[in-house]
Amino acid sequence: MNRSPKPSSPARKPALRSASAPAQRLVILVATRKGAWLFHGDARRRAWVADGPHFLGHDVSHVQLDPRDGRTLLAAAKTGHLGPTIFRSTDLGRSWREARQPPAFANAAGSLPSRSVDHSFWLTPGHASERDSWYAGTSPQGLFRSEDGGLSWMPLPAVNEDPQLREWMGTVQDGTPDGPKLHSVIIDPRDAAHLYFAMSGGGVHESRDAGGSWTPLIRGLEVVEGFDAANVIFHDPHCVRLCPGNPDRLYQQNHCGIYRIDRSGDPGADAWQRIGRKVPKSVGDIGFPMVVHPRDADTAWVFPMDGTTVWPRTSPGGRPAAYVTRNAGRSWQRLDQGLPESQAWWTVKRQAMTADSQATPALYLGTTSGELWIGRDEGARWSNIARHLPEIYAVEVATLP
Amino acid sequence: MKVLIPGALRSYTDQAQVEAIGSTIDALFSDLDRRYPGLRFRVVDEQRQLRPNMRIFVNGIGVRDLQQPLRPDDFVAVVLALSGG
Q1: Contact A220, A261 (CB under 8 A)
Q2: Which of A34, A59, A81, A160 to mutate to test the interface with B (most CBs of B within 10 A)?
Q3: Which of A319, A340, A395, B75 has the most beta carbons within 10 angstroms of its beta carbon?
Q4: ipTM of this predicted structure
Q5: What is the dihedral sign for C-alpha A111, A113, A114, A115?
Q6: Tens digits of per-residue pLDDT, A96-152?
Q7: Optimal mutation site among B47, B55, B78, B83, interface A, most CBs of chain A within 10 A
Q8: What is the SS3 assignment for A149?
Q9: Closest C-alpha among A177, A295, A185 to residue A243
Q10: CA gap A361, A355 in Å, rounded
Q11: What is the tally of helices (H) and strands (E) in chain B?
């Protein structure tokens, strides 16, 4: 069924390192419905050592490494019964400590209904200049900030208690099947006060004052046919990424297609351009993840899913494939070598696909069926790293110092 | 009073049965949180509501109202509802 000879199982022992082998260590952070796993490897990216499960039985939405110190991990977790929390490790997962004050909404203000955090969904390390700062996006939609490395979290009232944003968030009834999400929390690498976030549903929003006030950034985005695109509540961005190689460019996988925006310096003039029309119609430009290249702002990847009829949310036709653009969305090429050729009905969630920052980046993705894959040479050749994990929610990869 | 702790919360208490004080269930969970930091939020949310899949029994009788008065000789059981997957 696979185009590659034989998918490998998770390595049990570290590969022997030759004298000329790269010294850099990589770690893949895998968050699943039943716990978290770390896969340790090196820059050759040939063998991986599985470390896990951590938090067996917990729904782990996201695990992130702090790039500012290369050893602090945060994990957003809950269980079927217990409330949400954040776990923190300062030794790359050898030991964990629970947050003293996990993300929790303030008491209701005015006429707004009170809310309780069901789970923290998205974790973003703060700006390089703001050591120990982190952001968390929650379900239902809320934005929280920590200034002590994730031990305590404070709500951002300009999001969580703003009547207009609350209207655009809608209710739990308006959200995704797993609950409405605040996600894609992005910090401009040039300016710690310039932030973005997105909500499913509720649009893309931008702040230039460190989260004190927010403006929708939805011009050019389409909504489901028959609805008013001017109304923020109808917008469903699935994943937004800023290009490290050009922080004025962002890509977006939306409920209604793939988009790019180039910031002009005049926010009122900026509009998203739909760039997914050149993906073959039989595949479509619907999906969840959006991946950008670590340096080349013209290169980006998506992983289309079936968004027709009742939204099966599976690989189109049971034939999974990534698609890459090398020219900022003017054309797309299919990348499926090594992936199953047929009868593979999994898909990839919005946080479950990423790229490393090596000279020739590899892609990494986790499937809803619990498989972890690496796409070598920028996705040209796929091979399996692990099978039989629980449903994968998020995949991150980091280079260790 | 004696409080029976479910397996899912033993990472906080290290034991199945603990002693705690409180004139209401709400106060009891505040005391439990002082003794075992972090425990309360995993059972009671920020709006002081019992989380959906948690059950509390006082002397064998199920209660959901956190203001339910308690006496020092009550026996409180915290139980996970049969749900999930």
Answers
A1: yes
A2: A81
A3: A395
A4: 0.85
A5: negative
A6: 999 999 999 998 768 889 999 999 999 999 999 999 999 999 999 999 999 999 999
A7: B47
A8: coil
A9: A295
A10: 6
A11: 2, 5
